[in-house]
Design brief:
Layout (H helix, E strand, L loop, with lengths): L7 H10 L6 H7 L4 H4 L4 H5 L8 H26 L2 E2 L4 E4 L2 E4 L20 E12 L5 E12 L4 H27 L24 H22 L3 H25 L18 H13 L18 H15 L6 H20 L5 H24 L6 H6 L1 H7 L16 H15 L1
Antiparallel strand pairs: 1-2, 2-3, 4-5
Helix pairs in contact: 1-2, 6-8, 6-9, 7-8, 7-10, 7-11, 8-10, 8-12, 10-11, 10-12
Length: 424
């Protein structure tokens, strides 16, 4: 019999076992305290009328016993509803089997791109025990839900496709801008407070690219060992593509004079095939002089600064705060890389300032929306940022910085299970 079903006589028997026999008359006979009332009594009820017990020691001891029996009753009720999951995914409740309902972590119905339910919750159990005043231990098994962050490789492929398309758009736009570069004889370099006071360093641009390669190497190491590497790589493709798509628009609409006399812009393209060939060279060489790609003209805004800043923010975001030395090195490389871009006189100072501002703001804005799930509460955000809503709709919040060996048996087993489910 549950405690809430006790009669007054059973409450009196419990009082005797706890050493409060002298209060059986006033509680049970006079005030009719049964099991249901007993579970609602508090120490305040014992002090105040109509009970108004006089002995402080008895009030404290009886109040403690009341808390213990109330906790015991709560555990008994939960244990009665405790369920067991069988191999077919059903749960047993009070001896009867009912269908187990699968609950999604987050519905993507508002996104026109999402068509499958990939997120899920996994159940874990834990034991909670209390010890009664007579030394009896009462335990229950608590089953609770834990969010699981799944990689969603389909979305990773979509983000890679987005990056691939934007890279071609950017390269082709650079080819078009090359044809529209103003003549240096008619349009000399614009006044710039930095370029006018810092002498030209011809080797500086390669040093800037070297800083970028070091930051990219750090980022690749993080991707290899981070537990949620697929989500991180998806975010990298998404943010970088958005930044360079905006860059393509800015450098196409306005053509500035070259920032230095050393830049030679004489090549012209007479056919669409030549433009496509040149764009292919830029894409394959990633727009770097270290790979043999030499461009001319001022491209608003600086792509090298954008990548330096993006890698810096990615490294500092997805490494723990205790790795402050890595964060310091990352910021130093970022700032030195920006300085070398200016020292090479490849960009105006405004190009670098805009690149740093736009890249950092897009990065921070993206992560603010993703970490707080603000897009779920705002229809305007889902309309203006459909890719963000699509990529992040199954991510429960801020990505924890957890690391693992990339080729562990659990990862391989999960990968082959996913492949089998997709092909089967």
């Amino acid at each position: 019999m549950q405690i809430s079903e006790w009669s007054c006589a059973e409450v009196g028997q419990w009082l005797k076992t706890q050493g409060f026999e002298e209060y059986c008359y006033v509680l049970c006979d006079v005030h009719g305290v049964d099991g249901e009332v007993l579970l609602s009594l508090t120490e305040k009820d014992l002090r105040n009328p109509p009970l108004q017990l006089q002995k402080l020691a008895d009030i404290k001891k009886l109040g403690k016993c009341l808390k213990q029996i109330q906790e015991k009753s709560r555990i008994e009720k939960k244990s009665a509803l405790n369920h067991v999951i069988d191999k077919d995914g059903r749960k047993q409740m009070n001896g009867r089997f009912t269908a187990r309902k699968k609950r999604k972590q987050y519905q993507c119905n508002n996104s026109p791109f999402d068509k499958d339910d990939i997120s899920s919750d996994i159940e874990e159990s834990d034991a909670q025990c209390i010890v009664d005043s007579d030394g009896t231990e009462y335990c229950e098994t608590v089953i609770y839900k834990k969010n699981r962050i799944l990689p969603e490789y389909k979305k990773l492929l979509v983000s890679f496709g987005y990056a691939f398309v934007v890279s071609w758009i950017t390269a082709y736009t650079m080819v078009l801008v090359h044809e529209r570069v103003p003549d240096k004889q008619k349009h000399p370099p614009l006044p710039d407070i930095f370029l006018d006071n810092i002498p030209l360093m011809p080797f500086a641009f390669k040093l800037a690219e070297l800083c970028g390669l070091i930051l990219a190497s750090f980022w690749m190491i993080i991707l290899v060992f981070h537990k949620h590497r697929a989500i991180l790589l998806r975010r990298f493709f998404s943010i970088a593509s958005t930044i360079f798509l905006l860059r393509s628009c800015t450098m196409f609409v306005t053509s500035l004079s070259v920032p230095g006399e050393h830049l030679q812009c004489t090549a012209m393209y007479n056919s669409a095939w030549q433009r496509i060939s040149r764009a292919t060279e830029i894409v394959l060489g990633m727009g770097m002089t270290l790979t043999g790609v030499h461009s001319c003209g001022d491209y608003m805004f600086s792509g090298h600064t954008a990548y330096l800043t993006l890698f810096n923010h990615l490294i500092t975001e997805y490494t723990p705060l205790r790795m402050y030395y890595i964060h310091t090195v990352s910021w130093v490389l970022n700032l030195f890389g920006v300085f070398f871009v200016l020292a090479a006189h490849e960009h105006y100072s405004i190009d670098v300032l805009i690149a740093f501002y736009v890249t950092s703001r897009i990065f921070l804005y993206y992560h603010m929306l993703a970490n707080t799930r603000s897009y779920w509460h705002s229809k305007r955000i889902r309309i203006w940022f459909p890719l963000l809503s699509y990529f992040e709709c199954n991510v429960p919040g801020k990505i924890p910085n957890e690391y693992e060996w990339p080729l562990s048996t659990d990862n391989l087993r999960e990968f082959f299970k996913l492949v089998k489910s997709k092909t089967g």
